Amino acid sequence: MPLLGSRAADNDWLASVLDQLPAAVYVTDAEGRLTYFNRAAAEFAGREPRIGADFWCISHRLLTRDGEHLPHDQCPMAVALREARPIRGIEAQAERPDGSCIPFMPFPTPLFDGGGRLVGGFNLLVDISERKQAEKRIADLSCNDALTGLPNRFALRSYLAERIERAKREGESLLVMRIDPDRFKCFNDEYGQTIGDGLLIELAKRLGSIEGTFAARMGADEFVLVSRHSLGGEHGVLQAEQVRSALQADFINGTARHAVSVSMGCARYPQDSDSETGLLDAANAALRLAKTEGRSRIRMFDFAEQERERERLDLRAHLRQAIETGAILLHYQPQFRADGSVVGFEALARWRHPTRGVVSPSLFIPAAEEGGLIAALGAHVLRAACREAVRWKEPLRVSVNISPLEFAADALPGLVEEVLIETGLDPERLELEITEGVMVTDSDRAMATLSRLRALGVRIALDDFGTGYSSLSYLHRFPLTTLKIDRSFVATLGVTLEAVAITRAIIQLGHALGIEVVAEGVETPEQLDFLICEGCDSTQGYLLGRPLDAAAYAPLTGSA
Ligand code: C2E
Ligand code: CA
Ligand code: CA
């Protein structure tokens, strides 16, 4: 005799109590056929169930919490009846006839008669929609950024990990773009945090509306966009450019209009890395480089470039010690007059590195400039060159390269004076090589510095002439003593007519202004002949002598 019999059972009062319950309740016989259901069960089913029908009609189609369909014999109620034990702790979803899903917890319990024989089952279905919604809100809060509503970096990481797995299976490429608004800190300082937040929200909105992509906020003012990488698009550059133009529309805040610019660093799966951390790091490295280049820049990750960057950082880290321990040496390259006599030597810095061998100044001078060590390095070179020159019997010149940063700092004339006094070198024998840039950036100041240096009696050479701004106006305004024709012109003397014309013009210009002209990078007898014919005052290059340590040139300098 099934419990309650039917809806019209003798214990009507119990049925009416159960009908008041907000939870669905039903009872079956030992085969799982419905013998009773309450009002909530009918509502749960989404249609009127029938006594005698399989219990299956109440929960309709059953899904696990992960959304997999459950076969009938694995339904908790079927298991409870088959195994004659209550089932607890399961969460499932019922798919309603209209396609909606209700998350619920079933409590199927087998029923036995006095002799311990299974006579049926009882099930209570508790709707847990509200709890699930609350859980989702909490999960959203921990996965979404509170300000912009975009997924945060935790959500990004799990998305990216999943996306990489899928890309692996399906042979896809991915593009990870790290995006950073330019000068956001200044914007915040200038307009206040509320407007700064407004800009971030606007950027998030623009990012979120780019179709087929996943946008996230990494933190602070940095965003990440993940998209499928269409290989045709110039290795991702075109895709990144489209994103940049979508983001760079003006930001309108009330009546104010602000220009927006962003820098971007991009990395690709699988070329640059096949892990989410690797891709994010690579895109970050590219972004850092983009940021050093100014505004609105896009950089694709480039392994070789990163290696060079790492090398520069490594050099920078060890440079101070190298200066202090004397690992920075000078080589000297001779300069000759047309008659073959020596005029002087250019001092060129060399770093004898314990593991890398001799490191080129083209690598460590920029590292010194970036690392704030150029003043120390410059002072060391100047001192060493002057000390060396006073040991020569012949009163030859020594030329020392001066970095634009060293020139811009006010200390140079003072340092030169100090070194001249300290070493006793005749100022006429010292030549400082500067580049055109120093005269262009702040010409009044450059003029003052050059005048002070000239007042000390030292010579000033303009290095790499022809490669920079080559404005003629400063040539007669500034107190220069020497022009050095850049080696790129000398190298193409026999190749292009322009090189011939430019070299000839520089020599004539120098002479017209009473300035000596030196050609550097002379490698062939033809170049030398041409320069001498054109009246170039002196020449320097591998043909005539490579940069070597001072001892190698003792026969020319006459030093002991
Ligand atoms: P730079 O002042 O133009 O120096 C001439 C460079 O050309 C030197 O390279 C020299 O070795 C090279 N060179 C000389 N003759 C020839 C030739 O016939 N053919 C070719 N292809 N090259 C030739 P290095 O020594 O590697 O120096 C590179 C640059 O590093 C220098 O260019 C200079 O700008 C900078 N530098 C070197 N020493 C110092 C220094 O003590 N202080 C500063 N601030 N810069 C330095
Ligand atoms: Ca030079
Ligand atoms: Ca040069």
Give a written overview of the molecule.
With 560 residues, the chain is an alpha/beta fold. It folds into three domains: 8-133, PAS domain (Beta-Lactamase, 2-Layer Sandwich); 144-301, Alpha-Beta Plaits (2-Layer Sandwich), CATH 3.30.70; 315-557, TIM Barrel, CATH 3.20.20.450. Helix 18 links the parallel strand 20 and strand 21. The N and C termini lie far apart (124 Å). The mean pLDDT is 90. The protein binds ligand C2E and calcium ion (2 copies). One calcium ion (CA) binds next to loops.
Counted beta strands: 23
Radius of gyration: 41 Å
Oligomer state of the chains in this structure: single chain
Distance between the termini: 124 Å
The CATH class label of the largest domain is: Alpha Beta
Indicate the overall shape.
Answer: rod-shaped
Walk across the major sheet and give the strand order. Answer: 15-16-18-19-20-21-22-23
Per CATH, the architecture of the largest domain is: Alpha-Beta Barrel
**Proportion of beta-strand residues:** 15-25%
Which ligands does the model contain, each kind named once? ligand C2E, calcium ion
Low-confidence segments = none
Structural class of the helix and strand makeup?
alpha/beta
Mean pLDDT: 90
CATH superfamily of the largest domain: EAL domain
Q: Would you tell me which CATH topology of the largest domain applies?
A: TIM Barrel
Approximately how much helix is present in the residues?
40-55%
What's the number of domains? 3
Explain the layout of strands and helices.
Elements: H1 12-20, E1 24-29, E2 34-37, H2 39-45, H3 56-59, E3 61-64, H4 76-83, E4 92-95, E5 101-106, E6 109-112, E7 118-127, H5 129-143, H6 153-170, E8 174-181, H7 184-191, H8 193-208, E9 213-219, E10 222-228, H9 237-247, E11 251-253, E12 256-258, E13 262-269, H10 276-292, E14 298-300, H11 303-324, E15 328-337, E16 342-353, E17 357-359, H12 361-370, H13 374-390, E18 397-401, H14 404-408, H15 412-423, E19 430-434, H16 437-441, H17 443-456, E20 459-465, H18 473-477, E21 482-485, H19 487-491, H20 497-512, E22 516-519, H21 525-533, E23 538-539, H22 554-557
Parallel strand pairs: 13-14, 16-18, 18-19, 19-20, 20-21, 21-22, 22-23
Antiparallel strand pairs: 1-2, 1-7, 3-4, 4-5, 5-7, 6-7, 8-10, 8-13, 9-10, 11-12, 15-16, 15-23, 16-17
Helix pairs in contact: 7-8, 11-12, 13-15, 15-17
